[in-house]
Amino acid sequence: MKIVLIPGDGIGPEQMNATKKVLYAIKDILSLKFELEEVEAGDQALAKYGKALPDHTLAK
Question: If you write DSSP's letter for every residue of 9-52 in order, what string do you get?
């Protein structure tokens, strides 16, 4: 299973780091198998691609 994470802007990246710690702890405790993938969105994506939520992000 793949879980796609969208950190976004503002405090989003900070919250995402905490979320990843929780997800990895759950993964270990329950012996789950998944991978996490961060994708681009928000102001950085807007500056880079002209869209806050680029098509390649939505495709994930």
Answer: STTHHHHHHHHHHHHHHHHHHHT---EEEE---SHHHHHHHS-S
Structurally, how many domains does the chain consist of? 1
Instruction: Tell me the three state secondary structure of residue 57.
Output: helix
Residues 1-60: pLDDT tens digits? 999 999 988 898 899 999 999 999 999 999 999 999 999 999 999 999 999 999 999 988
Structural domain including 37 reads: 2-58
pTM for the structure as a whole: 0.75
Q: In the numeric block, which tokens belong to residue 13? A: 């990246």
